[in-house]
Amino acid sequence: MAFCSPHTTASLRSPCTTIPNSGFRQNQVILFTTRSSRRSNTRHGARTFQVSCAVEQPIVIGLAADSGCGKSTFMRRLTSVFGGAAEPPKGGNPDSNTLISDTTTVICLDDYHSLDRTGRKEKGVTALDPKANDFDLMYEQVKAIKEGKAIEKPIYNHVTGLLDPAELIQPPKIFVIEGLHPMYDERVRELLDFSIYLDISNEVKFAWKIQRDMAERGHSLESIKASIEARKPDFDAFIDPQKQYADAVIEVLPTQLIPDDNEGKVLRVKLIMKEGIKFFNPVYLFDEGSTINWIPCGRKLTCSYPGIKFSYGPDTYFGQEVSVLEMDGQFDRLDELIYVESHLSNLSTKFYGEVTQQMLKHADFPGSNNGTGLFQTIVGLKIRDLYEQIIAERAGVPAEAAKV
Ligand SMILES: Nc1ncnc2c1ncn2[C@@H]1O[C@H](COP(=O)(O)OP(=O)(O)OP(=O)(O)O)[C@@H](O)[C@H]1O
Ligand SMILES: O=C(CO)[C@H](O)[C@H](O)COP(=O)(O)O
């Protein structure tokens, strides 16, 4: 237990002062307890009370996906839910893969490649192969962060293909590990408070890769095809199986609204949510646990061809009970999303229309007119809620008191 200052009246959001050699620092998650009784004197709402404060350990979120499958876009939506912009560490390596905001630090697990680009080529392994990654170090460092300790994390430089000198990472409130293998190693998996897998079907992955790598990186169609084919066996062996461990999966498929569609522009997106996860109540449409098909196009929602279809219901996924919310099609007018939002429950919003507001705020992000953006935003809100509930439980206060 570290003291802010004895007998200070403070609010839940007040920062502690730095306590030398304590491992505690300013602006970390702070829990308040009185010395006499934890529960009876904790702050809720506008009441304040005399406190001492202890810094809590970060919560750890895992986000898994193949390269080019929307992890960065998802992270931008997540950090926005917490209210701040994420930036690379100030004054550090310009090729750092890390993004830091007031609340979150996102590290890219590519930084745990044990073989650089040349090393992989010499050994004939891809970056997806566990042999090219240092899982012992990954485990030790994620564990250290979770215990509230700073780490010296290596950097994999995507510009040069080399392993650069390490960067200092301080424990944040929310630590996100994104990349190819957040749920691969059982020890790392056990450290995760919540995990997400972005499951992009081959057809869609191909369409996105072409769009980005041809338009933005000058790659040829043939080289993109070859790169996808070369990665596929290792993707199937080491990356894809992680989805069975995820608490939420966002699955992106070609639309079923256009027969034999091969353009990949209209998407069918599923949000697969595991049942029975502490602090995570799956979102539902109309009636929890029922099976629902809903075509909202009409007076309240403008839909051009091929329209929009929602489905919701219980299912099983790798033998586990899940709820699945599905959206096929795309929005014509994003402001009308409020109509859809008003029919969804358990969204963990703080006010009516927060999903729509978030979507409008980032209307220029890829996927903002379809289920990818909608479900990424919803998962971001669920993570905020999970965070607040974990913090509240640790503090022994009602969840309301730990709102960010
Ligand atoms: N929801 C989406 N809808 C359409 N295109 C998308 C979507 N998400 C991502 N993309 C496309 O995929 C590209 C890669 O997205 P993003 O940078 O978020 O992925 P990433 O997983 O972080 O990639 P990498 O690991 O290679 O850095 C984007 O430039 C965009 O072209
Ligand atoms: O799958 C990847 C994850 O982003 C990359 O291909 C891997 O990190 C290797 O990077 P590079 O191609 O820059 O050498």
Automatic annotation (TrEMBL):
Organism the protein comes from: Triticum aestivum
Compartments where found: Plastid, Chloroplast
InterPro entries named among the record's database cross-references: P-loop_NTPase (IPR027417), PRK (IPR006082), PRK/URK (IPR006083)
Gene3D superfamilies found in the cross-reference section: P-loop containing nucleotide triphosphate hydrolases
PANTHER family: URIDINE KINASE (PTHR10285)
Enzyme class of the recorded protein, top EC level: transferase
Entry keyword annotation includes ATP-binding: yes
Pathway(s) of this molecule: Carbohydrate biosynthesis; Calvin cycle
GO cellular component: chloroplast; cytoplasm
Record has Transit peptide as a keyword: yes
Catalytic reaction equation(s): D-ribulose 5-phosphate + ATP = D-ribulose 1,5-bisphosphate + ADP + H(+)
Protein name listed in UniProt: Phosphoribulokinase
Matching SUPFAM superfamilies: P-loop containing nucleoside triphosphate hydrolases (SSF52540)
Keywords: ATP-binding, Calvin cycle, Chloroplast, Disulfide bond, Kinase, Nucleotide-binding, Photosynthesis, Plastid, Transferase, Transit peptide
Record-annotated Phosphoribulokinase/uridine kinase domain positions: 60-258
GO function term, MF aspect, one: phosphoribulokinase activity
Any one biological process term the GO annotation gives: reductive pentose-phosphate cycle
Domain of life: Eukaryota
Protein family per UniProt: Belongs to the phosphoribulokinase family.
The enzyme's E.C. designation: 2.7.1.19
Predominant subcellular localization, coarse grouping: plastid
